[in-house]
Specification:
Elements: H1 3-35, H2 44-60, H3 71-90, H4 94-114, H5 120-148, H6 158-162, H7 168-185, H8 193-210, H9 214-227, H10 234-263, H11 268-276, H12 280-298, H13 308-322, H14 326-335, H15 342-369, H16 373-386, H17 395-409
Helix pairs in contact: 1-2, 1-5, 3-4, 3-15, 4-17, 5-7, 5-8, 7-8, 7-9, 7-16, 9-16, 12-13, 13-14, 13-15, 15-16, 16-17
Length: about 425
């Protein structure tokens, strides 16, 4: 066979392989977001899917795919990531920081791996499906635990939390994202699929109430208020939302005054903590935040920070000296609780420069997306959860940050294939 025939055969096989990989790639990406909540049960599969996506990526990526991402926000994000890597290397703490750096790399890597996906709403539908699956799994687990344990307590109890598929905070995050994706997918005019999306929204909201996820409830409430600044009759929407918030605040002060008549003067912060923040998770965050502020005041953070591991070490030292209960002290020190605030963690670990670059990326992204409710809501969700959790310290958090970054960085002017027209 002549060499030209061999070359034609090789090119033909290469084209067939490229077509095959291009067909498999979107389903592998979707499957990744379907199974993320079940990572504890099928731990190897997400890593296998990431390997498949990474290997397939060079074969199917095209130059025009890079138009899908806003260039300036992506540059700012890469600048932030590049800085914390270089800072870690120059400070001699790369080995100890590597665990967190890998999780941040996963989030940014997902943005790059997303580029060949032509229909991003399929990924969002995968998240909707995974949230329903996680809810069903958790409810079955709760029912089983309640039937096998006579002392089982519903609500904000330890047994209830342990029966959930993953941590309550991340189940709440999945539900919030699912509600936003359902809302985005609904049509303004009648469409038979609207009923499914409404049903999914109802299921997620009811589940948030069932598991008493205060953070998810507050985020959804805030997003509902933000929504009033978009769409028709904006001035009337904002006026109604403002009046509602005023009534809510007035009601809180009225309840506070009722408690003062029987128990003496009560500060507003004490009132909120007593009535709305007395859960174990709320107390945990109050302790970690206090210690984080102590570390910030008593350590030389400077421009470069002290590193992710050193931050945890100093927090553990603070727990040992400030927590009076021996049992609670043992839990905090053995589990090495982090700061439970991603922005505080970035400040302590990477310094003022790291926090500045992260905030610069968020502010720029907000300015570019402020006219679009969906992207703004997604960005606000990231900020809200970043204020109460170190999202980059958990692999499941890194995956969902990657999804959030995909939406925030997506270029709305890029025309995708087979995207249904919004009405």
């Amino acid at each position: 066979m002549p060499f030209v025939d061999y070359l034609d055969t090789f090119n033909g096989l290469r084209n067939i392989m490229r077509i095959l990989l291009a067909s498999i790639y979107p389903f592998a990406f979707m499957l990744l977001f379907v199974i993320i909540p079940f990572d504890d049960y099928i731990r190897a599969l997400p890593n296998i899917l990431l390997i498949i996506l990474t290997i397939s990526f060079p074969a199917i990526i095209k130059r025009e795919h890079f138009q899908k991402i806003k260039k300036v926000p992506l540059f700012l994000l890469l600048l932030f990531f590049g800085y914390i890597i270089i800072n870690s290397i120059l400070s001699g703490r790369f080995d100890t920081d590597l665990n967190i750096l890998k999780k941040i790399a996963i989030a940014i890597g997902l943005v790059v791996l997303y580029l060949p996906i032509q229909y991003d709403r399929k990924v969002q539908k995968a998240v909707i499906f995974s949230s329903i699956a996680a809810i069903v799994f958790s409810i079955i687990s709760i029912v089983y635990s309640a039937n096998t344990n006579a002392n089982f307590e519903f609500g904000d109890s330890r047994m209830m939390i342990e029966a959930l598929l993953v941590d309550r905070l991340y189940l709440g995050l999945i539900s919030v994202l699912s509600v936003l994706f359902c809302y985005r997918s609904m049509r303004k005019t009648y469409h038979p699929h609207n009923a499914y999306y409404l049903g999914a929204i109802a299921i997620n909201v009811l589940f948030i109430v069932l598991v008493v996820s205060k953070i998810a409830s507050i985020v959804l409430f805030c997003l509902l208020l933000i929504r009033q600044a978009y769409g028709g009759k904006k001035s009337m929407r904002i006026a109604i939302a403002t009046a509602f918030v005023a009534v809510l605040v007035a009601g809180l002060f009225f309840l506070k005054s009722q408690q003062e008549t029987s128990a003496g003067p009560v500060s507003f912060s004490t009132f909120l903590n007593k009535n709305f923040g007395a859960s174990n998770t709320s107390q945990t965050r109050l302790i970690t935040w206090k210690c984080s502020m102590d570390v910030l005041q008593n350590s030389t953070i400077g421009l470069t920070g002290i590193g992710f591991k050193a931050t945890k070490d100093k927090l553990v030292d603070c727990y040992q000296t400030t927590i009076k209960s021996p049992e609670k002290k043992e839990v905090f020190t053995s589990q090495r609780y982090n700061s439970h605030n991603q922005f505080l963690d970035i400040l302590l670990s990477t310094g003022f420069v790291g926090l500045f670059l992260l905030c610069l990326f968020l502010i720029w992204s907000f300015m570019k997306n402020r006219e679009h409710f969906f992207q703004t809501a997604i960005l606000c969700t990231f900020i809200a959860y970043g204020l109460v959790e170190n999202i980059f310290h958990r692999q499941i958090g890194a995956y969902y940050v990657g999804l959030i970054l995909i939406i925030v960085l997506s270029n709305s002017s890029y025309k995708q294939i087979d995207v249904p027209k919004e009405v």
